[in-house]
Task: structure prediction
Amino acid sequence: MASIEASFRKLRPEWNGVVPTEVFFDEANRIVNKSKNSDVTLRVMGGVGIALHCPNERSFAQKLGRLVDGKQEYTDLDFAGLLKQRNKLVDFFTGQLGYAKRRTTISTSVSQRQIYYHPDGYFTVDVMMDKLLIANHPIDFRARLEIDPLTITPADLLLEKIQMWESFSEKDLKDCLLLIKAHKVSDEGEGADTINSKYIAELLSEDWGFYHTATTNLKKIASVVESLDDRGQEVHIDPARVSSGEREEITGKIVEGLLRAIEDHPKSLGWRVRSKLGTKKKWYKDVETPQTVGDFGIWRLKEISK
Result:
């Protein structure tokens, strides 16, 4: 994500250098609502998208303490859009919203990505068009972009996080915990309060690499929750703030809901053939480097600390 030079930021004095969470929520809502009157399709992704889909769990989110550098909860906004609306998106953000577009680079042009700067430098906005290509396991969201009126679906919000092999971070862990806590897991459709386990299982049954990454992350998330009394300090979660009932609820949804659905779903021939090679052959796409993600994210850091 592009950074904003401090000299160009016009933060309100009462914020003390920290952009309030509500500003991210309000601006994400404003952008999506305004886009619907501008013949542009946008849906919120990422941590803000997850929080917006979990409005009744703000107290639980606060228990998790999702703070970047110990300061603010979020640093940017992420949106999913459509490549066929590429030019309209530029007109929408720059003409109607007053954002400044970052100059196109090889990275942004090849990856179907646009980056914009908030008019007052509050944060950057990242727009991924058609697919999440800057990922260890790319996700195509074109056919699913209009299922939910504000964000990508809960299933896609979860997949966006658990596709990370190299850079899964503490904030991603906490985003997953919040999303799973706030939604039921079901194979019966895309309800607003539902993570569609059938869709996830079907998608992963076609791609062994994505399956391996996703299930590994889900198992590790469940393990952290189950051993939170011992490992809470590692992920900066106070075990006293997360009840045994909340822990059981989350691990149950992961193990009995998501992982069982994934394992039980029939696998394609291509999946079965690729599974025989396992991790002897690289199964994910390179995105980041050890220098940019702190030596491969939270799982790697925790392995070192043991």
